[in-house]
Amino acid sequence: MKNIMKFFIKIILPIFISIILYYLSRQISPDEQKYVYWAILFLTGGLFIFGVVQGSFFLNRCSKCGEWNAMEFVSKELVGSIRTNKVKELKKEIKNAQGEIVRTTTKQIMVPALKNTYKVYEKCKKCANIKVKTETEIVEI
């Protein structure tokens, strides 16, 4: 719970700061406003990137001890494989005498494929808890 609170404080606090900057910018001259708008834009972009990084750490946390970014890959085991079909798009470009593309046609065809199911084992760096995930992958034959 403590880590979740840190996550929200790191995201919500800068958003409030950007809102305050916006309302302050409405009280200054138009020449100075463009700099404040750029500051808000960079702050918002930085917050978005920070949120994506924090979210990836949050998703990669241990379910037992709660440590963020603690799970490391151990092994991957093939559980099963099923024959299936996959849609593949074929693109054909028609060119004129000068080599310019006049028309592009797209055709969808079904190709044979394998749907592989894997068990992925991850281990916590801190408490040695083992987490098992299931992943699927479709491979064209």
Outline the structure in words.
Helices cover 38% and strands 43% of the residues. It has 141 residues and is of the alpha+beta class. The chain has a three-stranded antiparallel beta sheet, with no helix packed on it. A hairpin with a 5-residue loop joins strand 2 and strand 3 (130-140). Helix 1 runs antiparallel to helix 2 (30-59). The longest helix has 30 residues, at 30-59.
Q: Order of helices and strands, N to C?
A: HHEEE
Helix count from the secondary structure assignment: 2
What are the segments in which pLDDT stays under 50 over at least 5 consecutive residues?
none
Looking at the structure, what is the overall shape?
Answer: flat
What does the secondary structure layout of this molecule look like, with pairings?
Blueprint: H1 2-25, H2 30-59, E1 71-95, E2 101-124, E3 130-140
Antiparallel strand pairs: 1-2, 2-3
Quickly list its features.
single chain, 43% strand, three-stranded antiparallel sheet, 141 residues, 3 strands, 2 domains, flat, alpha+beta
How would you summarize this macromolecular structure in one to three sentences?
By secondary structure, the protein is α+β, with helices and mostly antiparallel strands. It contains 2 helices and 3 strands; from the N terminus they run ααβββ.
